[in-house]
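Aim 2, interim progress. The first record below pairs a target sequence with its structure tokens.
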Amino acid sequence: MLKKVVRRCIVTDMPVTFSFPTTVLFGPGTVKELPHRLTSMGATKPLIVTDKGLIGTPAFRAIEALSGGKWPVFSGVTPNPVEDDVERGAEAYRKGGCDSVVAVGGGSALDVGKVIRIRVAWPDVPLRGFNPPAKAARVPLAPCVTIPTTAGTGSEIGRSSVIVFDGKKAVVFHPSLLAKLAILDPELTVGLPPKLTAATGADALTHCIESYTSPEFHPMCDGIALEGVRLIADALPRAVRDGGDVDARGKMQVAAMMGGVAFQKDLGAAHSLSHPLSSICGLHHGTANALTLPVVMRFNAERKPGLYARVGAAMGISDATDRAAIDAVSGLLRDVGLPEGLRAHGVKESQFDALAEQAFADPCHRTNPVPVTRDDLRRLYQQAM
């Protein structure tokens, strides 16, 4: 008698949660809906959270006009935000009698805006390693609307924020950090200079590539990441060449958001390398990613052949190989004016040990497609010089 054989096909041995809950409003001119959307949330006096560089720009003036000058503004967010930025923002929220947050700007402003609500709700809970108290369910965070004026971080739809504590970047994570609404209005990004357009675009590209190649099981994120790569390959060069190309600006905003959605799957070694380059050397996060991504891709492809074939296909390469995909990524970064080499950005070899130490402590490399050691990370910095 033949025995019946039952095969189990297990794609993951751990439970996986798929969640894309943030409401996103996209399109030219959509920022004009902000007052109505706030009213529908029961919010009447939001704190506008931004940075000094955005004050006086057309993007900020558009927000200010909608407020009628009645909404308090906190513009003390620094480029690599520190814990004190959050503390000062929370104090501005209390003094202003605010009931919500509108975070406007790049990833730093969005990250701080989201976390300010934690400090307001739970003033005595440490932000580093944030763990909400048992009473959290009875103290919901204030509503938050995120309005990106760059296309890179994806922070507008993320459930985490990156804050510097004692000179080291750390992630503040909790599902309650999600914004209630993200408004993607490409007209707010047309004034972004070419260099910053390129750097933030490189950030979005790195998110998409690293999330796709992360070994974690999340097929929805894989599809989103690959489509993000396709959009960036098409739109980023156009947005850099012509800042007024609203179609390219819009596609970059959507791609950046998709990268932010995709990296709930996790990231990889390029992000572990880039975080210390910001906290120790002061590099813009997107620029740091552009400088480290190609060397990490080469490292990974040597140890796991075929890893980047679908990335190359998403970039329009027929019969894509790892080498072709890596060359296409490097070429795209050069084409948008991001030169290779850490040395050109002031990084010194004498900093390698400190950089490697922080990079190894960073959790992102734990979901790199192949394992890395501290020595591997140090060698990758050397290769990126």
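The second target in this work package is listed in the same format:
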Amino acid sequence: MRILYFSRDYTSHDHRFLAGLAHTEHDVYYLRLEDASGLEARPLPDGITPVSWGGDHRWAGAQAWRIHEILLELQPDIIHAGPVQLCAFPAALAHSLPLVTMSWGSDILMDARQGAGRWKARYALKRSAVFLCDCDAVRTRAIELGMPDERIVVFPWGVDLDHFSPGNGREMRQALGWEEQFVVLSSRSFEPIYGVDTLVRGWIDAARAVDRMRLLLLGTGSQEAEIRGLLEQAGMLERVHFAGQVGYADLPGYLQAADLYVSASHSDGSSISLLEAMACGLPALVSDIPGNREWVAPQENGWWFPDGDEGMLALALQRAEDPDAGLSRLGRNSRAAAEERADWRRNFQCMLEAYQLAKASQSGGVI
């Protein structure tokens, strides 16, 4: 089968999908809408053929025409496109091939709530042979937008359970001078949707009450100056380590050095950051939103706090630091849940099955 994989940019998630496809018998072509630097340092997997976008087409009509040209040239059997509004919508305008639309979470949960984002999502879904998503929260929203349930394939993207595995993190903690501290970790980008500012405000309140509270922040983003300012104003900068953008190879070492993973995200599907932390045996304290509730069970492998409530987050952090919180048991349960439901090698087969379903749904051809 010839597959055109079309996404916004080359991220670690795209690398995971493309690396999986590279080990199949399919001929895979990769088209990216944007080209931002620093998202993914690993090269494109061997066996994946890049396709030049060939220009800066900023509006959907021009994008659709370029996709149409590419389809005429490549004659693929199916096109895999996502996020929904940015990639699946122009692909839906361009073709009569089976379209596999893949949600990246917020494109359906947030961007499709109203206005043009909602209209584009409905248009793309109406013309999709199959809709791929990573959790029931996105599936439910897609059904509300008109996608038939029988054409939806749900599979958590999952993680490499060998790469992300439990460890003592001793070397990292020694390097930070945090051997005896309680280390809270966030690996979300510093963007409004991920609530890192909420996390920092809640952590500051908890750290005022708990001397050994430390914060390990991975990532970068548009709110970094604001977040540093909050910590500086509170006199807490010396108790926080900004690790910056951490590469895939080094990420497990940081996760293994933490005692607790925290996410204050306002919207998520099956968060890969959360699954990576769970695979490393970390209990999780997460915002009470549908995507998180599918993975974190209170008192089983972590806790919830009300979305956006920094006061309740601070109280939850203090409870988690208590020696009686049972973090070791919760961490073991996190790893067990990851092994059961978040194994990338096993879950990836669902995507291949979706391709077969799409191919069988209608004949190929380009208008």
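The chain has a mean pLDDT of 94. This observation will shape the mutagenesis plan for the next reporting period.
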